[in-house]
Amino acid sequence: MARSIIDSSRLERIEFSNDEIARYSRHLIMPEVTMEGQKRIKAASVLCIGTGGLGSPIALYLAAAGVGRLGLVDGDTVDFSNLQRQILHGTRDVGRKKLNSARDRIREVNPNVQVDLYDSFFTAENARQISLPYDIIIDGTDNFPTRYLSNDISVFLKKPNVYGSIFRFDGQCTVFAPHLGGPCYRCMFPEPPPPGMVPSCAEGGVLGVLPGIIGVMQAIEAIKLIVGVGEPLMGRLMHFDALKMKFREFKLRRDPKCPVCGENPTITDLINYEQFCGIPEAKAAEEEEAHVPGISVEELKAKLGASEKFVLLDVREPFEYDICRIPGSRLIPLGQLPSRMSELDSADEIVLQCKTGLRSARALKLLQEAGFGKLWNLEGGIAAWAERVDPSVPKY
Fold first, then answer.
1. Where are the CATH 3.40.250.10 domain residues in the chain?
2. CA 284: distance to chain centroid?
3. Which residue in 29, 180, 305, 340 has a CA-CA distance of 20 to 30 Å to 204?
4. 352 alpha carbon, distance to own chain's centre
5. List of residues 6+ apart from 142 with CB closer than 8 A
6. Can you tell me the distance from the alpha carbon of 295 to that of 377, in angstroms, rounded to the nearest whole number?
7. CATH fold of 292-388, please?
8. Strand arrangement of the beta sheet that strand 350-353 belongs to
């Protein structure tokens, strides 16, 4: 059985009102929890990085369980595309700060919880100051710089880091805690993948209920660490496949050569995580790629209105084309373009279009290299068209 990370000396000043005893009664009658375990839960403080897909169930269930102090870190606002999975937020919250809607929802669930709001993104500049007051750090984000950052600050401050990640129909969860004998995130992933190789949820999609499952698993692991029951997922990675409804467990071992938690660490302070993950180089490559002949959505509207002769080529995927399209566009997905160039006439004027303008910029380069000359990239893609020309076009 695990040992609680909450020192018993902190329980002496914990008291419960009659309302709280009624609220937590189903915990109190469990022999694994009892009044002492619930006191540990109330004495505990948890930092949740992100209030999105994973952060929503994490924060809701920890608040309902009676965790005394919750810290929420998020600098984003609520968007319609969040509502499919981010259950902290509702339709009326669209446009609000996520922190504000999260705070209001948590207060409805349990007004006894202290909620600390950090209206910013988690960075190397603020991570130490934000993390210091909390017993556990839970990573509910979907980007690699924050994952490495939350791992490193957890190792340096000797705090458990409850990790979760989701993508399409797959999710995984584990606990990184070298100070308790387990590995850290860098033991599993010493180096980040090349930028763009692993799509985010915004790029690749995610089944809406999946973060509910993984986020609840993260909340369970936090409660186990706090109460001191069961076997935490230290040294074990739990993978969930929603399509097959199967869980698989993988053993994780601590790497003695790990640069952060190894025997001779070479990283002893926070670093530039954007640079470590290659973000500046990727942005520079995108900017260079974007330096192609461009046309604004207003100019495209004028060309269509004047019935000019040109080809409007959409290089998105078919399932995106089914969601929305610009009238008169022709679909050839970017991945099929090299083998389908013969379907195009190099003498035609061609306007290329995708969701935001990046894929179409790559398509334009491919056509340029093949000898096409009259090419334009639609700046901002169909997203800009929906924003500035035709609001009836749905955004996704």
1. 292-388
2. 23
3. 340
4. 30
5. 50, 52, 53, 165, 166, 200, 201
6. 6
7. Oxidized Rhodanese; domain 1 (3.40.250)
8. 294-295, 375-378, 350-353, 311-314, 330-331
pLDDT per residue as tens, the chain (396 positions): 579 999 999 999 999 999 999 999 999 999 999 999 999 999 999 999 999 999 999 999 999 999 999 999 999 999 999 999 999 999 999 999 999 999 999 999 999 999 999 999 999 999 999 999 999 999 999 999 999 999 999 999 999 999 999 999 999 999 999 999 999 999 999 999 887 777 777 778 899 999 999 999 999 999 999 999 999 999 999 999 999 999 999 999 999 999 999 999 999 999 999 999 987 765 555 555 557 899 999 999 999 999 999 999 999 999 999 999 999 999 999 999 999 999 999 999 999 999 999 999 999 999 999 999 999 999 999 999 999 999 999 999
Q: What tokens were used for 138? A: 């839970």
Nearest residue to 6 via CA among 66, 50, 54: 66
- To which residue do tokens 């022709």 refer? 330
Is 201 an active-site residue?
yes
**Coil, helix or strand for 197?**
coil
Provide the edge-to-edge strand list for the sheet that holds 114-118. Answer: 114-118, 69-73, 45-49, 136-139, 161-167, 170-176, 236-241, 246-251
Residue 265 neighbours by CB distance under 10 Å = 14
| Active-site residue, selected from the candidate residues 201, 258, 277, 324 | 201
Q: Where in the chain is the domain with CATH 3.40.50.720?
A: 8-283
DSSP secondary structure string for all residues of 41-75: HHH-EEEEE-SSTTHHHHHHHHHHHT-SEEEEE--
Place of tokens 């601590």: 254
Q: Which CATH code for domain 8-283?
A: 3.40.50.720
Separation of CA 119 from chain center: 16
Asked if 145 and 273 touch (Cβ cutoff 8 Å), the reply is yes
Catalytic entry in 173, 261, 277, 354: 354
- 173 labelled catalytic: no
Place of tokens 């279009």: 353
